[in-house]
Design goal:
alpha/beta; seven-stranded mixed β-sheet; 17% strand
Length: 469
């Protein structure tokens, strides 16, 4: 769009996405106003991507509350890019550039005298790994209500960085990771206080609630074993996804004792308690679950989590059942089994993986190819054999060869660039671009004038990845 535009919406708007989707808003020029209520202005929630790009103008970005201004949550990727103009970013929970629960939030304002209500660049860790929150204001005389100043840098752990590039100063030494209280360093406060802390730790740790959730979780960890004993006894059976995150944090901080304390609940007579115990055992790779694995796999209610645990801990004893279920009718279970088999890397799975690598189901086929790539010689063998079959199998074969990653296998992928069949040239370009576009740039560039439009498009994409465009 061009001109002075006014964008007004409620939730999930103005470059927003939710579960396996992409949301894009791109404005070319004009002094624009963006206003929304929640989950807006580059907000990506759960395995998705969201982009808001404004190329010019003095713009105002306001969101009433909640997720906004480049927040990637739960494997979400969010990007907000404003290329020029004197802009205002405001909202009760505005923190430009947030990564939450293994998400990525990237906020860039390239030029202009800008105003920010909230502190930029926040990242919260989850699943034993980090999130990425990045903020960059690349020019102009800017004003921050808190969290940054003009011409400064701020760094945070797991992982966040905020940069105002106008006369950049050294990073503040005060921006070090806060020291977490040691488990057992605080006394048991009693059930009423534990209840309060647990409720606070079970909140959604985004926006204004982020600090409260983090502080309550740290308090539970500091109380240590008495807190976990109470949580397991009183709350495990009724725990939902958010409160399970509090369990994960406390069990993880108390390892190895935390896993041992969880282990008895894996065989609980209460089905919901048993299910949640296995979810936690899976996410924390609790080694004490080994003795309950057979029962966990046998129980349909805990089977999926037990399969995930087997993969996380590389439990070879589970391979025969994983192989059986990988070829079964339950697609969700089959995908979980293939992921576990990839992690375990047992040769026992090779015959089943060779069969599933040519499955009609795209998801199963991709998962089987990834698992078979753990055995490069097998992937090379099957990939080569598939070149003697139909177009579909030949394309799968090229994918297998690329996944194998050996010099011999990749040489065969490169040779497919010279195929008389455009489908195979296209597959070779795609696979080589995924492997290493810079390494194979010269070979791919030879197809820039390919007679097939799909091949030419793939080549332009590949060359763009190596030129920075």
């Amino acid at each position: 769009a061009a001109g002075d535009d006014a964008y007004s919406a409620g939730t999930y708007s103005q470059g927003a996405s939710y579960w396996f989707s992409i949301g894009v808003l791109w404005d070319k020029a004009g002094h624009d106003s963006y206003s929304a209520h929640y989950y807006s202005q580059a907000s990506a929630m759960h395995l998705c991507a969201a982009y808001l790009v404004d190329e010019a103008g003095n713009d105002a970005y306001t969101v009433r509350t909640g997720a906004m201004h480049a927040i990637g949550h739960d494997y979400g990727l969010a990007v907000l890019l404003d290329r020029s103009g004197n802009d205002v970013y405001a909202g009760s929970d505005s923190r430009p550039g947030i990564g939450s629960a293994n998400g990525v939030g990237l906020f860039v304002d390239a030029a202009g005298d800008d105003r920010y209500q909230g502190p930029p660049a926040v990242a919260s860790a989850a699943r034993d790994s980090g999130s990425v929150g990045l903020f960059a204001d690349l020019g102009g005389q800017d004003l921050y209500a808190r969290g940054l100043s003009d011409g400064s840098v701020r760094l945070e752990p797991q992982w966040a960085a905020a940069l105002d590039a106008e006369g950049v100063a050294a990073a503040s030494p005060a921006a070090q990771a806060p020291e977490r209280l040691k488990p057992g360093s605080k006394p048991d406060p009693g059930p009423e206080e534990l209840e309060r802390l647990f409720r606070a730790a079970s909140g959604w740790g985004v926006g204004t609630q982020a600090d409260a959730v983090r502080q309550a979780t740290d308090e539970l960890i500091a109380i240590g074993k008495p807190a976990l004993e109470w949580m397991l006894r009183e709350k495990l059976a009724s725990a939902d996804r958010l409160s399970l995150r509090a369990f994960e944090a406390v069990i993880g901080a108390l390892k190895p004792e935390g896993g041992a304390m969880l282990a008895p609940y894996l065989s609980s007579a209460k089905s919901t308690e048993r299910e949640n115990a296995w979810r936690l055992a899976r996410s924390q790779a609790v080694p004490e679950a080994a003795t309950a694995l057979d029962a966990g796999l046998a129980d349909p209610k805990t089977r999926l989590s037990a399969v995930g645990w087997a993969g996380a801990t590389k439990a070879g004893s589970a391979v025969p059942r994983l192989v059986e279920w990988a070829g079964g009718d339950d697609r969700t279970l089959a995908l979980a089994c293939l992921a576990a088999l990839r992690s375990i890397g047992s040769p026992q799975a090779i015959p089943a993986l060779r069969k599933l690598a040519v499955a009609e189901d795209l998801g199963l086929r991709k998962a089987a190819v990834a698992a078979l790539a753990r055995f490069p010689d097998e992937a090379l063998s099957l990939g080569t054999a598939l070149q003697q079959r139909g177009i579909r199998e030949q394309r799968i074969g090229i994918e297998l060869l690329a996944a194998a990653g050996t010099d011999a296998a990749l040489a065969l992928v490169v040779s497919a660039l010279d195929s008389a069949k455009p489908e195979l040239r296209l597959e070779a370009v795609r696979c080589l671009t995924e492997v290493d576009p810079a390494r194979y740039r010269a070979q791919i560039a030879k197809l820039a004038e390919d007679p097939d439009p799909d091949v030419r498009l793939a080549v332009r994409w590949a060359l763009g990845k190596t030129s920075g465009r």
